Amino acid sequence: MDGGGGCFPTGRHYPGIAHLIRVAAIGVAEEWAAGLSMNELPLVCIDTETTGRDPAVDRVIEVGCVFFNSGGVTHRKSWLINPDCSIPAEATQVHGIKDEDVRDAPRFEAIAAELLEALRGAVPVAYNAQFDRDFLMAELGRVDLAAVALPPAFRKGVEWLDPLTWARELQKEEKSKSLGEVSERLGIQLVRAHRATDDAEAAVLVLAAFAGDIRVPKTYAAFLQEQRRLGRIFEEERVRWRGN
C-alpha cells in the first residue's frame, strides 16, 4: 500500500478493529495509568555504593534517593550502611568511603523499613538500573520482612526507568556513556561523582532531559516499552560483538 503507513496510512487505527488492539504495558507499576504523561510521574532516583560488583557476596554501603516531581527535585534521602565487612581498597578508590566512615552506621536490616517507606509512591529510576536493583534485592533478601508490602522499586515485574539505555541511543555517536560524561554533555553538574545522592540527582536530571527529546515517547507505558526494545537491541549487539 502506498503512503508508507502500512495498513494505517493515516496513522490512526480503524474504529472497527480498535477493540482488538491491546498495548502490553509490561513493567508499569499498578499505581499509575499506562497512559500517564512522563511529566506527571513522581520519580525516585536510586543509587548505591558498594564493596564490590557482585551482589551475591558484596554489600551495599550507601544508598541515595532523590525524589523528582513536576519538573524538579523535591527532596533527598541517604543512608550510610555498615556492611559488616571490610571495604576493599579498590572500592574506596571509586567512592571514597572507608571502613571508619561506616563503622558506627546502621546495618541494612536497621534501615530497610525506612527505605521501603521512602520508596512508596514513586516510580524507580537508576543509571544502569540492573546494578542497583540487584544489590538492593540481595540486601532485602537477607532481611526478614515477610509481612511488609513492597513499594514499586522492589516488586517483581515493575521495571525501573534507566537513563543509561537512552544515553546509548540518543548519544550513540559519543564514545563514553558514563554518568559524568553524559551529564556534562547535557550541561548537568555532577560535583561528587560516585557518591550515592549526587549520582542519583544527576541521573534523574539526565532522565528528565532525555524525556524532553522529541524522539522519546511521552507516556509512561510507551517510554518503558521503547526502553525495553532499546535494551534488547543493545544486548543483541553486545552478544554479537563478544562472538567476533
How does this model look, in words?
This protein has about 240 residues and is α+β, with helices and mostly antiparallel strands. It has one domain: 2-Layer Sandwich (Nucleotidyltransferase, domain 5), CATH 3.30.420. The protein has helices at about 90-95, 100, 110-120, 130-140, 165-170, 180-185, 195-210, 220-244, and strands spanning about 45-50, 60-70, 70-80, 125. Strands 3-2-1-4 form a 4-stranded mixed β-sheet, with helices on both faces. A hairpin with a 2-residue loop joins strand 2 and strand 3 (about 70-80). Helix 5 crosses helix 7, helix 5 packs across helix 8 and helix 6 crosses helix 7. It starts with about 40 loop residues before the first strand and ends with a helix. Mean pLDDT is about 90; it is low at about 1-20.
List the helices and strands and how they pair.
Layout (H helix, E strand, L loop, with lengths): L42 E8 L9 E10 L2 E9 L8 H7 L3 H4 L5 H12 L3 E3 L3 H13 L21 H8 L8 H7 L10 H16 L8 H24 L1
Parallel strand pairs: 1-4
Antiparallel strand pairs: 1-2, 2-3
